[in-house]
Write a structure and sequence with these properties.
Elements: H1 2-15, H2 28-44, H3 51-77, H4 79-94, H5 97-114, H6 116-124, H7 129-159, H8 176-191, H9 198-231, H10 235-243
Length: 264
């Protein structure tokens, strides 16, 4: 219980930047929290860390630092992105302390649940090697895809800030960064097979996975609505949205904006 509390406290500390603007709770604070939790796990279980969990934690540390750095640099360098954030910044200023604290606690809890398969594997000291190896491969693939998608989008927007991105990975799926995120956490969950004991541990791991999938689809919905406002009159954009899946490659789901339950 003490170890769980320390991980939760870590998530609270590193996501607290959201008090500047609540968007940071689940953007910059998200990446920092995942990286910090993974580092704390390595320190906490330094005497019993296996090669597999060591690699997993390194992937998550690199992932979290890269994501937070990317989001922060994008905000600093991109005037267009700052315009997108301005309404949220104003909304944050008007938000009371109780809603902010509630979001803060919920986000920190989510980050603990997401990383729980790694924590439980270290705590229980067992698991199946094939599951860990498969999980690491999928995690690395997901983190790599997300990183490449962000890089390609940055380059495309630099070349033409007023056009939607439909090059590189964006030819295959409209939200390749979200798909990469889904792959990353799928790998984390798979790695827990054989090391999750009992209903409570499985419930924590599955809950964290389901919640982050929901967040990714919710993010895809917000992006779709924003892009519809910006590019809806462009015939090329309309054709793009009707032929390229929104979040899962080769799965013919082209829109999620009609699903009101994805509002988050």
């Amino acid at each position: 219980m003490q170890q769980t509390g320390l991980i939760f406290l870590t998530a609270l500390i590193f996501s607290a930047c959201g008090f500047y603007t609540y968007i940071y709770f689940f953007s910059i604070g998200y990446g920092l929290s995942i990286a910090a939790i993974s580092a704390v796990l390595l320190i906490m279980f330094r005497g019993s860390v296996t090669a597999g969990t060591f690699v997993q934690c390194l992937i998550l540390i690199a992932y979290g630092i890269r994501l937070s750095g990317y989001l922060l640099l994008r905000e600093i360098r991109s005037a267009a992105y700052r315009q997108i954030l301005n309404p949220e910044m104003e909304r944050s200023k008007k938000m009371g302390m109780i809603p902010k604290v509630s979001i803060w606690i919920c986000c920190a809890l989510l980050y603990v649940l997401q990383t729980s398969p790694v924590f439980f594997r270290l705590q229980n000291g067992d698991g199946t090697a094939p599951a860990v190896i498969a999980g690491i491969v999928i995690m690395a693939l997901g983190a790599g895809l997300e990183s490449m998608a962000d890089y390609q989008k940055t380059r495309a927007k630099k070349a033409n800030p007023r056009r939607f991105v439909d090059t590189g990975l964006y030819r295959i799926v409209r939200c390749p960064n979200y798909f990469g995120e889904i792959l990353l956490w799928t790998g984390v969950l798979i790695s827990g097979i054989g090391s999750l004991h009992g209903a409570v541990q499985w419930a924590c791991a599955v809950a964290g996975y389901i919640l982050i999938i929901y967040v990714m689809f919710s993010g895809a919905r917000r992006l779709e609505l924003r892009q519809d406002r910006n590019y809806g009159a462009d015939p090329e954009y309309v054709r793009y949205t009707k032929t390229v899946p929104i979040i899962l490659p080769f799965v013919p789901v082209y829109s999620v904006k009609k699903y009101w339950f994805l509002v988050a």
